[in-house]
Each structure stands twice: as C-alpha cells, then as structure tokens.
Write a structure and sequence with these properties.
Blueprint (H helix, E strand, L loop, with lengths): L1 H19 L22 E16 L5 H7 L4 H6 L9 E19 L2 E27 L5 E26 L4 E27 L9 E31 L2 E13 L3 E14 L1
Antiparallel strand pairs: 1-2, 1-8, 2-3, 3-4, 4-5, 5-6, 6-7, 7-8
Length: 272
C-alpha cells in the first residue's frame, strides 16, 4: 500500500513539472486573431483608396431642352410637339477609379463621431442614342413626316464628398455609417437631330414638298454637378496606427441627366 501511495505522489509531481514546461499558448495566454482591447480612433487620419462602381443614368428627355430651342416657333413643333417625344432611356455602365480620404474622429468610450473628405478620380458615366419617327397633320394643309434622333452622354471624371460619420468600436473593428454632400465634375454632351418633309399636294409649285434638316448640340465640358451621398463601411486597425478600410458609397447627382453612382472601395489609412 505504501508503494502504491509513493508511486501516485511521484506521478503527480512529474505531471506538474511537465505542465510548467509547456508553451504559454497551450495555457491560454496566446490570443488568436485581432486584439479585443479598445482601439483609440480619436485624431486626424489620411489614406488612399481605389474602387469599382456602377453608374445608373436616366437619359429620358435628356435632349428635350435642346430640341425645344431648335424648333421654337416652327410649324413642326406646333403640330407635333416633337421636343416632348419620350426619347432616351436608362443605362447602367461599370467604371473604376482611385483617390484618397482624410478626416478627424472624436471618441467617447466605444462611440466614434467624425467628419471626412473623400475623393475619387476615374471613369463613371454612359451614353444613350435613341430615335423616333412620326407622321402627323400640320397647319396649312401640310402633312409632316418627322424623325427625331437624340444622343446624350455624361462622363464623370471626379467625385468628392464631404460627410459626417458615426461608428461603434468593437475591438480592432470600427463599423460606421455616413452621409453628406457630393460634388462632381463631368462632361455632358447632348445632341438633337430633327429631319423630315412637309408635304402638301395643293400648295403652290415649289412648296408641295419641303424637306428640313435641323441639328443642335449642347456641350458642357468640366461641368460641376451637385448632389448628396450616403453609405457604410468598416475600418480595421492592423497595427499601431495603420488601418484597412472597406466601404460602399451611394452618390446621387442632380443634373440635366439624372445620375447615381454606386461604388465599392478598399483603402489603406494612417491615424496620427
């Protein structure tokens, strides 16, 4: 019996010594993944970003004002209301860009509030071409045969947003939402081409068939456009003051061509 007790005591001593020699991570001191301690997000920060986006543009009626100016006080417009014809349609085009961001955060416990400027340079926009032909009676006994061709394009080269952010810090992660105003620079080109014939068999010789061909273009290069933005994202503190960003932003522009741009972005920033 004494030998059995002695063997048990020796076995316990050996087991304790073996456990003491085990690596620290097997005893629970090693933390897998990002730290769960609170991160200090307060202060100024700056970073770079790149992204992909989709421009959704509604070109319906985009050349209406151009056509109305072209046909002002004409029998064609009085008889057929050509400028009001519903030409154009919706277009979605993919684009990409790159840029940067800078801002400042205030932090209260886990709540983070900040203001930020974000900028993207790239190619966002599209083109629409449409046409319509009609035959209708006009004044003086004439019958008008009219074709209206509409071509419009809008290419956004620069987008900037000034926003307010609100986030909640969870360990090394900072999910946030934002909203603000948007400013863009775009080339907007709209062309109306209207042609056809006015026919009246009873008119005086030389006026029985009157052809017409009219066109006008309104081009605005580097034109400033305005709107608003909103979205959500997440910053992840990688090490020290270096953080990674993933973000989705929606921008709506009010212009002669109704436009909104959705972008998905990734960025890398540094907090001072």
């Amino acid at each position: 019996m004494r030998r059995l007790l002695l063997a048990a005591v020796m076995l316990g001593v050996l087991s304790s010594a073996h456990a003491a020699d085990m690596p620290d991570f097997l005893r629970g001191s090693f933390t897998d993944g990002f730290s769960h301690t609170r991160v200090n997000w307060e202060g100024f920060y700056i970073g770079g970003q790149g992204g992909l986006g989709t421009s959704d543009m509604n070109f319906t009626g985009a050349t209406r004002s151009v056509a109305a100016h072209l046909l002002v006080n004409t029998a064609v417009e009085a008889g057929g209301g050509v400028a009001e014809w519903p030409l154009g349609g919706k277009v979605s085009v993919h684009g990409n860009g790159f840029g940067g961001f800078a801002g400042y955060n205030e932090q209260w416990d886990d709540i983070v509030i900040g203001a930020e400027l974000s900028y993207m340079h790239g190619k966002f926009g599209g083109t629409s071409t449409d046409s319509m032909s009609r035959v209708f009676g006009a004044s003086g006994g004439y019958t008008d045969s009219v074709t209206y061709e509409s071509t419009a394009s809008m290419n956004i080269s620069d987008m900037a947003t000034a926003r307010l952010r609100a986030g909640y810090s969870v360990g090394s992660f900072l999910p946030y939402v934002f909203g603000g105003v948007a400013l863009g620079q775009a080339d907007i080109i709209r062309t109306a081409h209207i042609f056809g014939n006015q026919v009246n068999a009873n008119a005086a010789p030389g006026f029985t068939n009157i052809p017409f061909d009219l066109s006008a273009t309104d081009a605005k290069n580097s034109h400033f456009i305005y709107g608003y933005s909103g979205g959500l994202g997440m910053d992840v503190m990688l090490m020290s003051c270096l953080f990674l960003r993933a973000e989705w932003e929606y921008v709506r522009f009010t212009s002669p061509i109704d436009t909104n741009v959705n972008t998905v972005r990734v960025g890398l920033g540094y907090k001072f």
